[in-house]
Design a protein that fits this description.
The complex is a heterodimer. By secondary structure, chain A is an alpha+beta fold. In chain A, the strands form four sheets. In chain A, strands 4-5-10-6-7 form a five-stranded antiparallel sheet. The radius of gyration of chain A is 20 Å and the shape is globular. Helix content of chain B is 27%, strand content 20%. Classes of the chains: A alpha+beta, B alpha+beta. At the A-B interface, strand 1, helix 5, helix 6, strand 11 and helix 12 of A face strand 4, helix 10 and helix 15 of B.
């Protein structure tokens, strides 16, 4: 049970920092609260009491969203569902809609925020691979000596371990900045114990840009979660495919280049088995959505990985 | 504790209420506004029994701090329709037979309503996807999806209101047709009150202190600090039991609360009744229990070994029940066999996971009758046991069965009703206990984990000549239904086959695990898993079609079972024929099947699990997303 004496809903960043100052060391920040409430239950944290819960979801900067041809700025309070139903976001981050449809369920996605998924820093966080392929950075904000101070950190560097980030005491995650990748095809592969409401055992995001004929890979970016303390890009696979013709043989060869990734505490063999299959399947799906020529990949490959 | 003010529009009515800041929206709706159609199945966002619309968007109210509802417009199941004037979706759930226990149904109706609001033309795959956050444990979902499709078609004019009215309309006829449940309108409207929805004036809230040890001697229990707390009305331990303390379906080996020692993690040790839930939970922390840990045993085979820790003094060998059955001469039967196959099969504990966690309410009425209301699958037996435990004549004990939000056998044991009765007697006030999902999973009976060693001898023509069958089941810390489960396993485990020579042993064993109890099929599942798997392997070895090996051995009309029951009519032959047709079986041994499979890709076979239906691509064309 989550108990608090005060539930504070600041309307501005300054009000949030006022509350954080007033309850220094005695507050917890919530946004969607969809992870905090289940955490404060038997078997995890148990009954937890805070003098103050500070709900930052109504701060306007947290809800900001700006997408240009090359850049996207996404407020940390953006609910996951927006990555499916906001066409501008879906175009700019092509693997995110496919990730979102697997993320918890429709109802939780309306509350759960992208920022919450990042600060949780789960090794299996679904949104992280999708943001890594966009070369995302996070904007962190604090108030020092009465002044709002911002800093930018690459997402790669933001997560430092399972449940750990470089977020400093008194600092908030304000927004995510990333490249916009319109014209790329996106894919997201995930496996867990069931379809909805499941933590990934392995998940993988891929975005691909093809040449106008749909026969060569101009750019490809892939990232994986659930297999290491922190999600990561598959840079060797990317380098092997980038600028090369789109062929079934090349994709199958690429699938086995980074089989040594798994550092999980459990089910290592299973995960090692999944990775190459997810690489192939995500490339089939992403290249199709990027406009692959129908004859580029042979039907037997698609059937084998369907 | 300072209160917060909530201004909101709830089911079309403006409300302004002061409430406690830590509440979730579900608590506010249920406890402050008495809108109990919104259920709590898990409290962790997993099950969807609490789904409500917030500003038109479906959300799980157990995951939403009430402060987030400030200024919002909220619709609960109560806004969709009332008993007697149901919404189209609610009527469709009624017509399709989509509600069984009913506990998931308000949330399911809300999710279905949201799905069609999002896409009035959603196909079945998209409906499944959009209902993904809501769990049902009774229906297997197909009737729920039928109901949503029915509502969709009625809304879109594809189904006329006349045709809709005629569905299931067969006044006075019952045999050979589906009959609508008479309690369905109360379930689809959220009006039906389960035990956890019931309140009484002056009602206290109960919480239970549970053992952190699997096996330990209780040195002392000090409840004085808890009893002295403001808002605490009463604390009980086993010392408050006035009569003969012990319950169970067969052997009365379980005390209402641990007496002398604890035998599993989660066993009740003490219980508190307080003015509110938070006080009751804090009072648990104030109870001091000194334990002296004892060696524990967690494996049924280990528990059977000489020198293993003894769980109950009355059973020094840790055997709860051993059912031996002997027919013919198995050694002779094996000697006549051309093939003798031996294997060991194991199954694990399974939680029933009914959507309604255990809950109960108790009071002592004006005539001094101790009354317990709970979703209890065996009230008559429990009434008799409780009368002895609280030393009252049977006329002073009443059990009322509240609607059972799913039981599956898991609510057959009197594991908490005794505590409620004692607290009502001690405090002279109505008391209510509602389990959390975690508490339900940690402390209530499970399906018996089993290990079965099975040896079957057959002649070349596939006929069974002899069977030895030994099943060891982990019954956990208390007897509960173990004896009955062992009996059913012994009666049904060898399957509906003619077996001339049989040696069958089913053995229930005490361990320090969570007690095992009744669960649908009651021991037949574990034992028949072994037998049927074994027959498939024999079919493979002998080159038999698996249906054929069963036909060769099956009982027919007039057969006599190994427990000497004569079966006047046996439908197995027809069942096998229907199963063979229905699954599109390609004849032949299981390991010699052709390159093509006629059981896949048919219209009447469901496609593989997929997500992304709403992106507009047929799931089959996407590479299994």
């Amino acid at each position: 049970m989550l108990l608090c004496d005060h539930y504070i809903t600041p309307a501005t960043l300054d009000e949030a920092f006022d509350a954080m100052d007033a309850y220094r060391g005695r507050y917890r920040i919530v946004a969607g609260a969809t992870d905090t409430l289940p955490w404060a239950r038997q078997g995890r944290a148990g009954d937890v009491h805070y003098p103050a819960l500070i709900d930052i979801s109504r701060i306007p900067e947290m809800k900001a969203r700006k997408v240009t041809a090359t850049q996207a700025l996404i407020g940390a309070g953006t609910p996951i569902q927006r990555f499916m139903d906001d066409p501008a976001l879906a175009r700019a981050l092509p693997s995110m809609p496919r990730c979102a449809v697997w993320f918890a369920d429709d109802q939780i996605r309306e509350l759960a925020t992208i920022g919450g998924n990042l600060v949780n820093a789960s090794p299996a966080a679904d949104s992280v691979p999708c943001l890594l392929v966009q070369d995302a950075a996070v904007e962190l904000v604090a108030r020092r000596d009465g002044r709002i101070v911002r800093r930018k950190v690459r997402l790669d560097d933001f997560m430092t371990g399972p449940g750990r980030t470089c977020l400093a005491e008194g600092e908030l995650l304000l927004a995510i900045e990333c490249a916009a990748l319109p014209g790329y095809g996106g894919a997201f592969e995930k496996v867990g114990h069931r379809r909805s409401l499941v933590i990934s055992v392995v998940c993988l995001a891929a975005v691909v840009k093809l040449d106008p004929e749909g026969r060569a890979i101009e750019d490809v970016r892939m990232a994986i979660a659930g297999v290491r303390p922190v999600p990561c890009r598959l840079r060797e696979v990317e380098a092997f495919l980038r600028g090369k013709p789109l062929t079934a043989d090349r994709i199958e060869e690429a699938a086995h280049l980074q089989s040594d990734l798994v550092q999980s505490r459990s089910r290592q063999d299973y995960r090692r088995d999944v990775i190459p299959k997810f690489i192939v399947r995500s490339l089939i799906n992403a290249t199709r959505r990027a406009g692959a020529h129908p004859s580029a990949l042979n039907a037997s490959l698609e059937a084998a990985y369907a | 504790m300072p209160e917060i003010q909530i201004d909101a529009v709830i089911n079309g009515r403006k409300i302004r209420r002061a409430t406690r800041p830590h509440l979730r929206l579900i608590d506010f709706l249920r406890d402050d506004l008495n809108l109990t159609g919104t259920k709590e199945g898990c409290g962790a966002g997993e099950c969807g029994t609490c789904s409500v619309f917030v500003d038109g968007v479906l959300m799980k109210s157990c995951l939403m701090p009430v402060a987030k509802a400030q200024g919002a417009t909220i619709e609960t199941i109560e806004s969709l329709g009332r008993t007697g004037e149901l919404s189209v979706m609610q009527q469709a759930f009624h017509k399709a037979g989509a509600s069984q226990c009913g506990y998931c149904i308000p949330g399911m109706v809300m999710a279905a309503t949201a799905a069609l609001r999002a896409n009035p033309f959603a196909d079945r795959e998209e409906i499944k996807e959009r209902l993904g956050g809501n769990i049902c444990r009774c229906t297997g979902y197909q009737k729920i999806f039928d109901a949503v499709e029915m509502a969709r078609d009625l809304n879109n004019g594809r189904l006329s209101s006349e045709a809709f009215a005629e569905i299931d309309d067969g006044e006075g006829k019952y045999i050979g047709r589906n009959i609508r449940r008479i309690d369905a309108p109360s379930k689809v409207s959220g009006a039906l009150k389960y035990a956890g929805d019931m309140v009484m004036p002056g009602m206290l809230h109960v919480q239970v202190l549970r053992s952190p040890h699997a096996h330990a001697r209780i040195v002392s229990i000090d409840t004085s600090a808890a009893e002295a707390m403001d808002g605490v009305a009463g604390v009980i331990t086993c010392d408050d039991v006035p009569g003969e303390d012990g319950f169970g379906v067969f052997v009365h080996d379980q005390p209402i609360m641990a007496r002398g020692k604890v035998r599993y993690v989660g066993e009740a040790v003490a219980a508190v009744a307080a003015e509110d839930l938070v006080t009751a939970r804090r009072a648990l922390d104030a109870i001091e229990v000194v334990y002296e840990p004892l060696p524990a045993v967690f494996d049924a085979h280990e528990a059977l070994k000489p020198g293993a820790p003894v769980i109950h003094d009355y059973a020094p060998d840790n055997i709860t029940k051993h059912i031996p059955i002997r027919v013919g001469d198995v050694e002779k039967g094996f000697a006549q066999s051309d093939l003798v196959l031996e294997e060991t099969y194991t199954t694990q504990a399974i939680e029933h996971a009914y959507l309604e966690p255990e809950a109960g309410l108790a009071y002592v009425d004006h005539d001094g009758v101790v009354t317990v209301i709970s979703p209890d699958q065996n009230i008559t037996h429990h009434r008799h046991m409780l009368a002895k435990i609280i030393a009252k004549p049977i006329s002073k004990v009443r059990f009322i069965m509240s609607p059972v939000g799913g039981g599956f056998g898991g609510k057959e044991d009197m594991i908490y009703q005794g505590m409620l009765a004692l607290l009502a007697m001690k405090t002279h006030r109505p008391v209510r206990l509602v389990f959390t999902r975690e508490e339900s999973i940690a402390t209530t009976a499970k399906r018996h984990p089993s290990t079965t060693t099975l040896r079957i001898g057959v002649t070349r023509d596939g006929r069974i000549q002899a069977v030895t069958f030994k099943m060891i089941c982990d019954g956990g810390a208390y007897g509960l239904s173990t004896e009955g489960v062992m009996r059913k396993a012994a009666i049904l485990g060898a399957g509906p086959y003619n077996i001339p020579n049989l040696r069958m042993d089913t053995i229930g064993v005490y361990t320090n695990n969570t007690p095992s109890g009744a669960f649908r099929s009651f021991g037949a599942l574990q034992s028949q898993f072994a037998t049927e798997s074994h027959l498939d392997m024999i079919a493979e070895t002998l080159g038999f079609d698996p249906f054929e090996i069963r036909r060769v051995n099956m009982m027919r009309d007039g057969a006599r079972t190994h427990t000497k029951q004569v079966l006047k009519s046996v439908s197995l032959g027809r069942v096998l024929d229907a199963a063979e047709r229905g699954c599109g079986w390609d004849k032949g041994p299981p390991n010699q099947r052709g390159a093509t499979r006629s059981d896949l890709g048919r219209d009447d076979v469901r496609p593989a699990v997929a997500l992304g239906a709403r992106f507009g691509a047929a799931p089959a064309r996407e590479a299994a997303e």
